[in-house]
Amino acid sequence: MTLILLLVSFFASIAGAICGIGGGVIIKPVLDTLNIAGVATISFLSGCTVLSMSCYSVGKALAAKESLVDFKTGTPLAIGAAIGGILGKNLFSALTAAAPDPQRVGGYQAVCLAIITLATLIYTLMQSRIKTHKVENWLVCIVIGLALGVMSSFLGIGGGPINLVVLYFFFSMSTKVAAQNSLYIILISQLTSLATTLVANSVPEFNWIWLIAMVLGGVGGAIAGRTINKKLKDEHVRKLFIVLMAIIIAISCYNAFRFMA
């Protein structure tokens, strides 16, 4: 199982680094399908993996002076996402505590993820016909980030495709610029989420070997993904993104049926 987790984290992080979706949106539903642990543990492991991947990707780009992050926009978005992440985590904990069967919360997550991903896919396919905007007000950026953080934290995906759609629509970013800004937002929100979990002493039970394997896979995937991203054109990244969305929708639908049955 450790090898499987390493490979899942590695390939998900490659895709996450290329497209800017963090990898958690792939890791979380795949691990739910494998049914290796409770939904809280899977969300925690996925979050730690995404944190390691985004930390390397953002840090390496900054060190190499190749960063495309718009800090004027990205920082208030990241602050909002960090606050939203705390709210989303509390929402997840409340639903888990209130549900007669905590595993059913995994079903709710899967349904929400399928709907959000489907909406993202539709937007991406129709993107050329949709007018975009250029939001500059920092307060509006925080509010948008807040919404992103709540959804991402509750779903346990770290960031995901919704980040890219928001960056396309509200900030008129190109594919690769949006990818780097998305990873920056994910990094800040995941750091805050992990710190909150540690301070609240609410870390779920997990296997340390699994965590180490997934973090190594996350970093390895980030290294490979960053290299591949440099060689791809925006259109190639967009096509990969569309394929991933279709796969995630299929897996999420399966998980929703399995958890809710």
Annotation keywords:
261 residues, 10 helices, 0% strand, globular
Summarize the structure.
By secondary structure, the chain is mainly α. 80% of the residues lie in helices and 0% in strands. The protein has one domain.
Characterization of the model:
The chain has helices at 2-19, 24-34, 39-63, 71-98, 104-125, 138-155, 161-171, 175-199, 208-231, 234-260. The chain is mainly α. It has one domain (2-260). The protein is globular and about 45 Å long.
Largest sheet: none
How many domains? The number is: 1
> How many beta-strand elements?
0
Order of helices and strands: HHHHHHHHHH
- Which structural category do the helix and sheet elements fall into? mainly alpha
- What integer is the average pLDDT? 89
Beta-strand content: under 5%
Architecture blueprint of SSEs:
Layout: H1 2-19, H2 24-34, H3 39-63, H4 71-98, H5 104-125, H6 138-155, H7 161-171, H8 175-199, H9 208-231, H10 234-260
Helix pairs in contact: 1-2, 1-3, 1-9, 2-3, 2-10, 3-8, 3-9, 4-6, 4-8, 5-10, 7-8
